[in-house]
Amino acid sequence: MNFYACIIGSEILNGRREDKHFEFLKNELQKYGHELFASFIIKDDEKLIKNIYKLVKEDDKSVMFSFGGIGATPDDLTRAIAAEVFTSKPIKRHKQFEKDIIERFGDEAYPHRVHMADLPQNADLLQNPINNMSGFSLQDRFFFTPGFPQMSHPMISSVIARLFSTSVQKYRVTLLAKTSENTLIDLMKKVPSEVEFSSLPILNAEGASVEISLCASDKVLVDKNFKLFTDFLENSNIAYNII
Fold first, then answer.
1. Which one of 20, 100, 142, 214 counts the least CB within 10 Å of its CB?
2. HSE-up of 197 (CA within 13 Å, CB side)?
3. Closest residue by Cα to residue 85 from 125, 127, 36, 141
4. Is the peptide bond before 111 cis (omega within 30 degrees of 0)?
5. CA distance 145 to 128
6. CA distance 72 to 70
7. Helix 46-58 crosses helix 78-87 at what angle (to 10 degrees)?
8. Sign of CA dihedral 45, 56, 157, 15
9. 36-44 mean pLDDT
10. Per-residue DSSP letters for 44-112?
């Protein structure tokens, strides 16, 4: 599974609000051995939101958590865009959500608040523990929540625990070598795509160093490829430490 975060809010990008969602979602996924594939913080812009949703939809392994834009004000664009991109059908009044809104707000549900119940067709509600103004999901893959962390985070925690709690165990090994990245590029090219690989250069007063890290669920495969680096460094008399 490829997990995406889409954090919608011009107020984050212009500095009026600080993002709370990325760190939360990263940590929540890590509880079960998952990690984010991509994260976007974007403006309340119809074309931009639509393009991000389309990108996510085109990935057949995607799971998306979208934050913000599901209210009743003119800049709340998420509901209609989600309907267009993920269902190719217009939004439709969700009767249970409509009832919840009327029960909470009475006459003040009209003329605006009730439109929060206009959702993509076949959407499932995500319970909001704060005020029962729900988020929604599609296909148990695409999840749409309010921008308020105190509302959205319990929703997401519940979803991940219910649908994505199967732990994925990964094995990681890392070394720090007193050499430049350039020295190890030929070895880097030999690491198969099944192994997550990263090379982080370090420059300080002692000269160039590089941190090499390999990760995968197959420990044997990781160790085999890691040995390519340790053997080369030892044969080249390049100092390194396992970290």
1. 20
2. 19
3. 141
4. yes
5. 9
6. 7
7. 30
8. negative
9. 97
10. S-HHHHHHHHHHHHH-TTEEEEEES--SSSTT--HHHHHHHHHHSS--EE-HHHHHHHHHHHGGGGTTT
| Model confidence, pTM | 0.89
E strand or H helix that includes residue 227: helix 219-235
Cα separation of 79 and 83, whole Å? 6
Alpha-carbon Rg of the chain, whole angstroms?
23
pLDDT digits (tens, 9 = 90+) for 89-134: 999 999 999 999 999 999 999 999 999 999 999 999 999 999 999 9
- CB count within 10 Å of CB 144 equals 29
What letter represents residue 147's amino acid?
G
Structure tokens, 163: 């649908």
- Give the residue from 156, 81, 71 showing the smallest Cα distance to 120: 81
Structure tokens given for 60: 């057949």
